[in-house]
UniProtKB/TrEMBL annotation:
Originating species: freshwater metagenome
HAMAP family per the UniProt record, alphabetical: MurG
Protein name from the UniProt record: Unannotated protein
Chain ranges of the Glycosyltransferase family 28 N-terminal domain: 5-142
GO molecular function: undecaprenyldiphospho-muramoylpentapeptide beta-N-acetylglucosaminyltransferase activity
Length: 358
């Protein structure tokens, strides 16, 4: 029996792979216990209890970006969090801390180091985050989702992907998936998604391009996200919805995707061979642009900037690509070469290898 403390929260990019790994660990040994460290405000506050796991709470403490009062008191608050995590580790007899990055992971890494509990890190982005770079200095092992990741001394394991997605590589009922969304079973299908919050520029360009896409015989499944001003639409060749609970069906229904380049999205599309036009979100440290380097090099995707993605691009470049079945097949196979289906198993094996040294 092993007691695991998994850390990582705030966004789906941290929480979803964490939950996938937690499920795999419990499947291997039902006697083991998995605890999750997170905040009361992040996505984990809802998803972790829904998964039947115990959430151990700490305060959210972002790293200071500029010299101000918050930066001055940061060391004291950080050390307070470290002490809090140490109390959790002792209370639950934690054998290993497994971190997926994010604000909550850094104090957990230091707490584990001070108590001589091994740390195993998973870096989901090609451009490693601050917390994981910090923890990697003393981690027992580190896995990375992308071959091109800049995380030093890490092993390429791929992204832990939900079983519902990986199953698509073995069997997918395309007509049934399209029927689920009210789409035609035999038409070439374009999936458009900007992530959970949506992407205003992508949404507006696709909305203005509905007629030319339909004229080309391409039907569209358009996921607009929670903040879009657009209304949901259900037409014979155009289905616009705010959210999708079953993303595996959206992927199964589609021949091509237009998407932002979040790590999980790129990993899932690549693993099952869904070719895509990626339009990276150009803010922060530009991490989305790095997430697509592997699949671009393999030939499984294309990319442009937000400013370049307009109606003219859709008409002159996107439609010809989607309409070329040989091109799509070639890109699909190339995407699979960049992707990894067994990222969960690879990362769990890395954790077990660390535990075997104790």
């Amino acid at each position: 029996m092993t007691n695991y403390l998994l850390t990582g929260g705030g966004t789906a990019g941290h929480v979803n792979p964490l939950l996938t790994v937690a499920s795999a660990l419990l499947e291997r040994d039902e006697a083991s216990k998995v605890f999750v460290l997170g905040t009361s405000t992040g996505l984990e506050s809802r998803l972790v209890p829904e998964a039947g796991l115990q959430l151990l709470l700490v305060d959210k403490l972002p790293f200071p970006r500029r010299p101000n009062l918050k930066a001055l008191i940061f060391p004291f608050r950080f050390l307070s969090l470290v002490q809090k995590v140490k109390s959790y580790i002792r209370q639950h007899s934690i054998d290993v801390v497994v971190g997926f990055g994010g604000y909550v992971s850094a104090p957990a890494y230091l707490a584990a180091k001070q108590l001589k509990v091994p740390v195993v890190i998973h870096e989901g982005n090609a451009l490693a985050g601050i917390a994981n770079k910090f923890g990697n200095r003393f981690a027992a092992a580190a896995g990375k989702a992308f071959r091109s990741s800049d995380l030093a001394n890490s092993e390429f394991v791929g992204m832990p992907i939900r079983a519902a997605i990986t199953e698509l590589s073995r069997a997918k009922d395309v007509p049934a998936a399209r029927k689920f969304f009210g789409l035609k079973p035999d038409s070439t299908t374009l999936l458009v998604t900007g992530g959970s919050l949506g992407a205003k520029s992508i949404n507006e360009t696709i909305d203005r391009s509905r007629a030319v896409l339909a004229a080309a015989g391409i039907q569209v499944l358009h996921i607009i996200g929670g903040t879009s001003d657009l209304e949901e639409v259900s037409e014979p060749e155009y289905r616009r919805i705010r959210y999708v609970d079953r993303m595996e069906l959206a992927i199964a229904a589609s021949d091509f995707a237009v998407s932002r380049a979040g790590a999980a999205t790129v990993s899932e599309f690549s693993a099952v061979g869904l070719p895509a036009l990626y339009i990276p979100y150009a803010v922060g440290n530009g991490e989305q642009g790095f997430n697509i380097l592997d699949v671009l090099a393999a030939g499984g995707a294309i990319t442009i900037t937000d400013k370049e993605f307009d109606e003219q691009y859709v008409r002159a470049f996107l439609i010809p690509v989607i309409s070329d079945s040989k091109k799509l097949a070639s890109m699909s196979e190339a995407a699979k070469q960049a992707g990894v289906l067994d990222g969960t198993e690879r990362f769990v094996a890395l954790i077990e290898e660390v535990l075997s040294r104790r």
